[in-house]
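hi support,

uploading two proteins for the ticket. first:
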Amino acid sequence: MNLSISSVESVLAQIQGLSNNAQDLSQLHAFLKQSDDLLRSESTRLPTLLSQLNPTEHSLGYLYILDASMSAPISTEQAPELVTCVARFIDECAADQILLAPEKFISVCKRFKDQVLLLKAPLQGVGPMRTAIKKLQLSSEQLTPLHPEFLLLCVLAKCYRIGFSILEDDILEVDQPKDFFLYCYYGGMICIGQKEFRKALELFHNVVTSPMSTLNAIAVEAYKKYILVSLIKIGQFSTSFPKYASSVAQRNLKNYCQLYLDLANSYSLGKISELETCVQKNRDKYENDNNLGLVQQVVASIYKRNIQRLTQTYLTLSLQDIASAVQLRSPKEAEMHVLQMIEDGEIYATINQKDGMVRFLEDPEQYKSCEMIEHIDSSIQRMMTLSKKLTSMDEQMSCDLSYLAKVGRDRQRLDFDDMEGGIPHKFNI
C-alpha cells in the first residue's frame, strides 16, 4: 500500500481506511508518525477535519489531528469549543487505539487541562481527566502522568471526594519521580479537604522520604504541610527523619521550614497564648505559603489536644474546670468542644447536664464485633497482597541488568585487593 504523504486530505483518507483492525492500525500509526510535521504545519485547517472522523472508530487518527491542532496558539474564542471537543474525544475514544500513542494522548490531556484552567473552569476537566486515566492505565497500580493533573483539577474545583476516590488505589508502578511527588502532594491536599488527615500524613511522608539527589520545591512545600497535619492529627511533630529518607532531605528540609518548626515547638508547650503569638508573628508568611487555613486548624486543635490530656489525669471534671484548664472562654464553649470530640470519637465521655460534670470513659471497642473482624481481616489480606508484590518486585530488581551493573560498580570500591589491615584504602581511619 502506498503511504506517501501529499496533503492533509490524504492523511484523512488513510485514517478512514486504516482503522479497522490491528494490522491496519499498525500501518496507520507508522504513516501518522511520518505525517506529524505536515499536520502541524496545517494546524489551522485541522479542526474542520475532525467532524469527518468518528472519535471511537478513528481514535488513533483523531488523536494525531487533535494533538497537531492544539500545537498552534488557541484563542479565547476557540477555547470553549476545543475543550468540548477534547472532552468528547476522551469519553468516546477506544483505549486500544490511544495506547498505541500514549505520549500523544498525555500531551492532549495536559493541554486540555491548561485550557480549562485558562477558562477558570477546573470542574469541567475533572470528569474527562478521570476517564483519561482509566483509559491510559494498564492496571490500577500504575501511576500515569495524568494522575497529578487530575488531582490538581480536583483541588482547584474543590472536588475532594472525587479526587480521594483515586487515592484508594495502591500505586506500585512509577515511571517519572516528578509525577509521584506531585501525585502525593496534591493527594495530600485532597485528603486535607476531606479531613482524612491520616492519609494526608502518609502521602506527605512519601514525598519527604522519597529518594532525591537534590532538594525540590515540592518536597519543601510537602514538609510544611506534613508538620501542620501532624500537629492536627497526632498533636505532636518529630523532627527526626527515618533512616530511609535521603541525606539531602535530612540535611536541608528543616532550613526551609523553620517557621513551621517554631510553630510545632510552640504547640508542644500546650499554651494557647504562645501559639497564637507565634501565628500572629508569622501570619503573612503562612498566608503567602497558602497554609494559613491549616495553621488556624492547628490552633483550633490545641484545645482538643489539651482536653485529651485531661482525660489521662481525671475521671470526672466540671465544664468550668475544663474551660479554665484549656483556656476557653466559658463552660458552654468547653461543652461544645467536648460534645464535638465525643461525636468524632476522639474521646469517650458523658456530660451530666444537671451539675455540668464530665465523666471520662474507657474506649468501648472490644474488637470482637463483625465489622471490626471484617476490617482486621481486610487489612491482613491487603498486607499479604502487598508483601507478595514487594517480593516480586525485589526478584525483578535482582535480575535487572542496569541495577546489577550499578551494584557491581559500587562493590568495586570495596574490592578485597584494596584492603590493608581489614580496612579499605578509601575509608582509612
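and the second one:
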Amino acid sequence: MDASRMSAAIRYRVFKRIAITVFAFATAAGIAFAFFRIAPENHIQRITETVKGWETSFKSTPKLSKCRGFHDANKIWKESQLKRQRLRDDKFTIAMQTYRRPKELNETLNGLLLEKIPSLSEVVVVWNDLEATPPEGYTSKHGVPVRFRQSPVNSLNQKLWPDPAYQTQAIFLSDDDIFYKPRDLEFVFQTWRKFGRRRMTGGFARCTIEEANHEYKYSFCSTDDAHNNYNMILSGLSFAHISFLDYYSSNDALATKIRAYVDQHFNCEDIAMNYLVSMLTGEGPLLVKGKDPYVMLSPPSGISTKPGHFEARTQCLNDFNKLFGCMPLIEETGHMEHGVILS
C-alpha cells in the first residue's frame, strides 16, 4: 500500500508539473499573439494577405479579348522569352527617347539620378535628332552609366528597338518630359517583377470608349471610383519585358505593318505596344501609382501638344482594329499604390 501511495503521489506531482508547464506555455503564446496583433508586423501581414487576395482576383478576372489565331506571333514571342532568360531580372534599364528638348531631357535625367535607385542598371537615351551629335555618355554619382544611342532614323519605333547591349529583362520605356520619383520607380519595378511581367506596367493610364457604331474613341480615364477601368498604360512611363520589344521589332507581318503605320503617322507606337502585349498574353495592363505624383514637365513642343491629337489617336485605334482583325485591349480595374495599406 505504501508503495502504491508513493507511486500515485509521484504520478500526481508529474501531472501537476506538466499541467503547469502547458498552462504557462499557453499563457505566453496568448500574450505573444496579442502583442503580434497590435505590432507593426501585423500591418505587414495584412498587406501580404490582401495583396495575395488581390493577385488571385486580378489573375482570375475574366478576359474579354476576342483575338485568336496569332500563332506565328506567339511563336516569336515565346522563343524570345527563352532567349532572354539569360538577362538579369533583378535590375532594369531605362530607355528614354528624346528629340531636341535638351532642357526637359536634362531635368528628367537629373530628377531620376538625384537619388540612388538600387535596381537601376543603365540609362539609355535614344537620340532621335539626326542633325545633332549626342552628348558623351557619363556615369552618375551613384554609379549608373548613362549612354546616348544615336538613332539611324527619326522614328518613334526606335525606343522600342531591343538594343543588343541591354543587360536586363525589364525595360522602362520613358519620354524625356516625364518621370517617377526615384523611390517610386524602384517600387514600380518591384511591382512589375511580382505582378507585371506579362503586362505594360506603369503610371500613364488611358482608356477607350466603344461607340454605337462599334468604333472606338481614345479618352482619358474616369476618376470616378465606380468607373475606374482602364485598358492601356502608355509607353512614356511604363515597364515592358524585352521579349515584347523583340516581337514589336520582328519581321512578323503584323509587327511590320504596325511599325510602318507608326512611321507613316508619326504617332501611336504606345497604343500599338498595348495592342501587341494584350494580343500575345490575353492580359490587360497594370497601373502603378507612386507615393508622389509622377513629374510631368509639360514642354511647349511635342506630339501630344499638336491640334487634333485625340482625333489622331482615335483614328489609330480603329485602324489598328482593322489591322489586327479584332480589339485586343482588355479592361482592368486593379492598381498598386506605393505607401498605401490595402484593406
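thanks. also noticed: The first helix runs from residue 2 to 38.
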